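Predict the structure of LacI family transcriptional regulator.
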Amino acid sequence: MASIKEIALISGFSQSTVSRLLNHDPALSVSDATRNKILATAKKLHYPLPQTDTKKTYQVAVFFALNPQREIEDVYYYDLRRSIVQHAKDEYIDVTFIKDLKNKNLTKFDGAIAVGYFDDDQLMQLHQAFAHILFIDSNPEPEHFSSVQPNLEYATTKAVNLFIKRRLTNIGIVTGQYWDVNTPSHLIVRLDSRLNYFKNIMTDAGLYNDELLFKAHDFTVSSGREIGTEIANQLKTGLALDALFIASDSLAIGVLDALNEINPELAQALSIISINDSPSAAYTQPPLTTFHIDIDYLVRVSFNKLYDMITFHNQSQEITLVTPTLVYRDTFTKND
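Done. Here is the predicted structure for LacI family transcriptional regulator.
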């Protein structure tokens, strides 16, 4: 357990002030900022506090700019929403999911969380409406917004380097596309950053082949099946393909389903690494090697950062990257 001395050292206040505050000295008079900083420091150091002393309850707006049907089909975003709701309950934070940025009651919120795509006008509205806002999973404007997101560049780099280390040279990628929920379905709003990372690494290695780029409609299992069928057909006509880096488990599950349906040997022959480590990844045929993104940790860090932004009126912007961990299974075993 942390000591009063440690809390004082980290928070920057005297041991006397910290001790009197944590022991509820009625004669102590400190500012809200001082009180909040000491309590926040004590909580981070796991100093035992009554629940009423840990955090002030804040009102937080959550903007989830994702197509509801695609959210259901993409387990990553489904789990992200679930984790936001659960963590808010655990931390006694009031969250309200809002669809309309023109909502007249935004002034009642202390801060906001945003997930998904927002156009330029919407980003301006968010920036103007909230002094404290945090993006989870991406950051559309780092100069205006802070974010907590998985380190996809690390995952992409590690996957490709592992393939190359195994002397696999015909390396492909299966990626998806992001769509704006507020505009016609033909409008693509953002390409997958993993594709840019992949192209850079493969080009530097002299291995990039545009024929091995497979671009799905989105990140769902059904889109993965379509790409899997396309890959199987091209393999029949002599396409050289040793390995696939797949942008999400949902896509990878669809690809494996299609390959197994057409010819199970195709699924066994390819080395595959994906991202997300969804519950289904362990039960594909063969079981899927994938990067585990700890969504609950991602959300917990996000709430802590937003709380600090609100409490200490922090106006500086920063990007916090959470490093995923590779879980080895049969599509790319650790000791091949």
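The longest strand covers residues 59-65.
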